[in-house]
UniProtKB/TrEMBL annotation:
It comes from Dyella caseinilytica. It holds the Pfam family 2OG-FeII_Oxy_2. Keywords: Dioxygenase, Oxidoreductase. SUPFAM superfamilies: Clavaminate synthase-like. Residues 92-190 form the Fe2OG dioxygenase domain. This is Alpha-ketoglutarate-dependent dioxygenase AlkB. One of its GO terms (molecular function) is dioxygenase activity.
Length: 197
């Protein structure tokens, strides 16, 4: 089965000065993306979590999972996806985070990744599987430019390390029904070894 489509269309959201941020739809063939979604839906140990907000504990509106890239229990699908991400972007990704958006009520608030948890100047790459969801990318400084990006199944979104300084990104709740989506995030974390942190 063909994993990669030829000559993916690259959309540039931000340049090297403030990013980069690029979006590539159709990197993973539709049939393969659908099979990966099904495998991860059943094969990942999904967790719920809570966080303090407005002086009370609230549930995080999505499920999540995590693997080190060298984890012996890494699902085969994630190993294949990791290989594609490394080949596409030439980065030594060692951490794989997953978010499961069950429906239109699940979301993630606008945020940027914490720079102390990332190796400087290494990118973050997001693989989308399942239903299309809108990501809102907003520049932090005036003129606060905003992009609403439709993240399709089989697409890859690259955010440069520098982009975390200049942009917030989030997945808003929706007012209409939408199917489930899985986001797979490849990062380069500092201090990782074969045994983790």
């Amino acid at each position: 089965m063909q994993a990669l489509l030829f000559e993916p269309n690259v959309q540039r959201i931000a340049d090297e000065t403030t990013g980069p941020i690029t979006y590539q739809p159709g990197v993973i063939a539709p049939d393969l993306a659908a099979s990966w979604f099904a495998a991860l839906l059943q094969g990942v140990d999904w967790h719920e979590s809570s966080r303090m907000m407005y002086e009370r504990m609230v549930g995080v509106p999505r499920l999540h999972g995590h693997y080190a890239a060298d984890d012996p229990s890494l699902p085969k699908v994630l190993g294949a996806a990791l290989g594609i991400a490394k080949a596409q972007f030439r980065a030594p990704f060692n951490s794989i985070g997953l978010n499961f958006y069950r429906d239109e009520h699940d979301s993630v608030a606008p945020h940027n990744d914490k720079l102390h948890e990332l190796v400087p100047h290494q990118p973050i790459v997001l693989l989308s599987l399942g239903a299309t969801r809108t990501m809102v990318i907003r520049r932090k400084t005036p003129p606060h430019l905003k992009t609403e990006l439709e993240l399709e199944a089989g697409s890859l979104l690259l955010m440069g390390w520098n982009a975390q300084l200049n942009y917030d990104h989030g997945i808003p709740k929706l007012r209409y029904p939408v199917g489930p989506r899985i986001s797979v995030a490849f990062r380069v974390r500092p201090g990782w070894s074969e045994d983790g942190w």
